[in-house]
């Protein structure tokens, strides 16, 4: 592999964009059933301040994920290194939040995607990656995570205490974030990023809110499945699709519709946490694609 030079300031800037995407996502409002600055959504154990504390605690690892990718010579070994670093980041998160899980899924996704991005930057400029809609990054994730679902769930039938991800796999065959990674994040490649490119004329806040609504309507959100099963998922998707069929003449109309959706999600005790993670990742790649870094 012929390496190009990736400077530390570049990695610092990319990692700051990654942290910023997490902050933009949690600060976006209103978000149905999710934490934002004005609502805890359908949560009783977390709020906006806790999310800020969590991001502050584990986001220093974002740059480490990039550096591991830049330094790696083997994708399988890179994934092992990223999992070890990710476990450390998760411990930092749980310590800061008094063991409330605010970002476990996001931490996994940022680890593998930033590690893959660092790997690709060995041979390809950020500008070229952006021109390719970051397809080489998603391909690298596919390669490094191949077989993860089968490996992680191989003993699930004999275990007595299952994580909720394992329980969803047993109940519904849902592979969750592992399956998404193994497939190269198709929800990002085929849904979120194309939608953002097609709606670049919208102001940023409205664009991200409408993307969120689109993702709620389309995603098999594991957090909703965990809380309410397939019936709840169908119910939430139908509500989101009904809203998307409407038109909003101005931002105020959209905000009122989302506030009503939030109240409904709270009454159902449902939160689309999988959507939130994907939204943050989409914001990251969206802002990375338009960063001055992609001009060189």
UniProtKB/TrEMBL annotation:
Give the source's domain of life in one word: Bacteria
Q: Which reaction does it catalyse?
A: 3'-dephospho-CoA + ATP = 2'-(5''-triphospho-alpha-D-ribosyl)-3'-dephospho-CoA + adenine
Does Ubl conjugation count among this protein's keywords? no
Catalytic EC class = transferase
Documented EC number(s): 2.4.2.52
Report whether DNA repair shows up as a keyword of the record: no
* BP terms from Gene Ontology: prosthetic group biosynthetic process
**Sorted UniProt keywords:** ATP-binding, Nucleotide-binding, Transferase
Q: Known Pfam families for this protein?
A: CitG
What are the recorded GO MF terms, alphabetically? Answer: ATP binding; triphosphoribosyl-dephospho-CoA synthase activity
Q: Which family does it belong to?
A: Belongs to the CitG/MdcB family.
Q: Which NCBIfam families match?
A: citrate_citG (TIGR03125)
PANTHER family linked: 2-(5''-TRIPHOSPHORIBOSYL)-3'-DEPHOSPHOCOENZYME-A SYNTHASE, TRIPHOSPHORIBOSYL-DEPHOSPHO-COA SYNTHASE
Name used for this protein in its record: Probable 2-(5''-triphosphoribosyl)-3'-dephosphocoenzyme-A synthase
Which species is this record about?
Answer: Lactiplantibacillus fabifermentans DSM 21115
User: What's the gene?
Assistant: citG
């Amino acid at each position: 592999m012929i390496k190009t030079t990736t400077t530390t300031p570049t990695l610092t800037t990319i990692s700051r964009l990654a942290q910023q995407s997490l902050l933009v996502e949690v600060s976006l409002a209103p978000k149905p059933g999710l934490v934002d600055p004005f609502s805890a959504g359908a949560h009783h154990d977390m709020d906006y301040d806790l999310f800020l504390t969590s991001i502050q605690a584990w986001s220093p690892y974002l740059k480490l994920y990039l550096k591991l990718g830049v330094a790696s010579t083997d994708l399988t070994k890179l994934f092992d290194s990223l999992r070890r670093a990710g476990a450390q980041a998760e411990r930092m998160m749980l310590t800061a939040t008094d063991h409330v899980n605010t970002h476990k899924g996001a931490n996994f996704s940022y680890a593998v995607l930033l590690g893959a991005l660092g790997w690709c930057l060995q041979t390809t400029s950020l500008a070229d990656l952006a021109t390719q809609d970051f397809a080489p990054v998603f391909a690298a994730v596919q390669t490094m995570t191949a077989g993860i679902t089968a490996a992680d769930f191989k003993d699930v039938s004999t275990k007595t205490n299952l994580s909720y991800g394992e329980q969803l796999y047993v109940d519904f065959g849902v592979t969750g974030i592992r399956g998404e990674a193994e497939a190269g994040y198709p929800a990002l490649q085929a849904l979120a990023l194309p939608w953002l490119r097609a709606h670049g004329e919208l102001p940023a806040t409205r664009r991200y809110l409408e993307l969120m609504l689109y993702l709620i309507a389309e995603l098999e959100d594991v957090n909703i499945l965990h809380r309410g099963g397939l019936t709840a998922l169908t119910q939430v998707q139908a509500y989101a699709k009904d809203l998307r069929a409407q038109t909003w003449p101005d931002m105020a109309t959209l905000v009122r519709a989302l506030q009503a959706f939030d109240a409904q999600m709270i009454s159902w005790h449902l939160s689309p946490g999988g959507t939130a993670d994907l939204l943050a990742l989409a914001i990251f790649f969206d802002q990375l694609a338009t960063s001055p870094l992609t001009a060189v």
